Amino acid sequence: MEDAMKVFKEFFELPFEKKSHLYTHDENVKCKLYTSSYNYENEEIHYWRDCLIHDCAPLKESFDLWPRNPPRYREVVGEYLSQVGKLGSRILDLISEGLGLESDFFAHGYNEDFFLTVNHYPPCPDPSFTLGLPKHCDPNVITLLLQDIVPGLQVRVDNEWQLVQPRPNAFVVNIAHQMQVISNGKLKGAEHRVVTNTEKSRTTASYFVVPSKDCILEPAKALTQNDPPLYKQFRYAEFMETYKALSTQEPENLLEPYKFKKEVI
Ligand code: OGA
Ligand code: NI
Known about the structure:
Plant_2OG-oxidoreductases; 6-stranded antiparallel β-sheet; IPNS-like_FE2OG_OXY; alpha+beta; metal ion binding; 6 helices; 4-stranded antiparallel β-sheet; Jelly Rolls; binds N-oxalylglycine; binds nickel (II) ion
């Protein structure tokens, strides 16, 4: 984890010429560097963040897409991702045990696709003007976030923003939208955002555990024997289209189109 964080920081310290070729907002590019969000053209406010994003699945095949600089990036990040991938599967196993689902529940399309974003938030002259990342809930299943010692992540608890204090050698595990659907609302997608500071740059890395595009999401059958299902079936790719189009809305609204409406008699 320490080595990976070092390499991530080294990447953002590279001179502009060594990383400018990766700079694009083109959706089809599988390893790229961009500023603010993927919605740069349409967003009202830009965010104080640079982001390196790349695929990690299948690990061996995506290796060649990753940055060549710093020279140890591929080796260190390859090892990091292989370990974080195992940790992600282990956490999903424990969550399925906790929810009372069959032990290989998440092996069926939910733990299929992976990508990494490395976020860099430079010191911001006036943090009251913008955020590092706006409030959102991650669209996937779970996210494993590595943060350095500089704080900035906040999570919404009872309508208040609370700082998630970084702990050495620990991951923050986010429950994301699809886990809320699968668990039939037993686990809630965590609303979070990133604030900036005037003094120190901050680097983080998010490992997203993502369902396959064709994965059908719905509450797990084992959880709807006694309780009615809260959400209808949908394809993950369909959800992602709404997510990208509506991402400035309240995070909870994104699941609204898939909710069963209560009938008024
Ligand atoms: C994200 C995210 C938090 C952070 O990448 O989705 O919420 O602290 N990152 O960088
Ligand atoms: Ni997030």
